[in-house]
Amino acid sequence: MSDILPGYNYSKDVGRYRNAQSGKFVSRADIEKLLRAQVQDAESRYGDLATAFYEGRISPASFVEQLRTEQRRLALQNAALAIGGFALLSFALFGAVGASLRGTYIKIVGTAQDVVDKKVSLPQLLNRINGYVGEARRVYFDALRSNAPQAPEGQTTIERRILAQDSESCDDCLEYYSMGWQIAGTILPVPSADCRCGSHCRCTLVSRDIPSGDVNQWIGTKN
Prior knowledge:
With about 220 residues, the protein is mainly alpha-helical. The protein has two domains: about 10-145, no CATH class; about 155-220, no CATH class. The chain is about 50% helix and about 10% strand.
């Protein structure tokens, strides 16, 4: 039983969750919905925390400590969701998440000081905060790609970018979308990487296995 998604098992061979009772695979779209819900919940929690700090209801030290804790929890939760559970988090993945967190921690301290120095407005603060949520969101896609199972013999894994439905996309994201299907891990960056949206990117990355002989028919299309 998965410790990140109760009631479901995780099949490492295919990188998919399966309903423990019915045995049916969970669609990747449903997992993306769960990720989206986690992001929305985090944005709400982070926003409440930032507003309390901006209004002087909590100290700078408390803001930094609480936001660091929230960021670590969210990043690890996203990584676990991508690979099947906390029990499957490897030392290498822990290290990768830790490296991402260290960079965000530095930004959090700088943001706290900017608020103390009255260099940012509340809307600017909330915008930064949502960017931190986006950095934790990227952890999901990094973990998903780095831990993807090898395609079955005679098949090739392809992937494509899907534009965010509820936010604007930058020119880079539009370009990645226009590329259609590409061989996984070769051209397309994960969301939030190498685009002007940065940590505010809300695009997704989907993948599928196809017969290797059909690759040329898929590359560049949006089937």
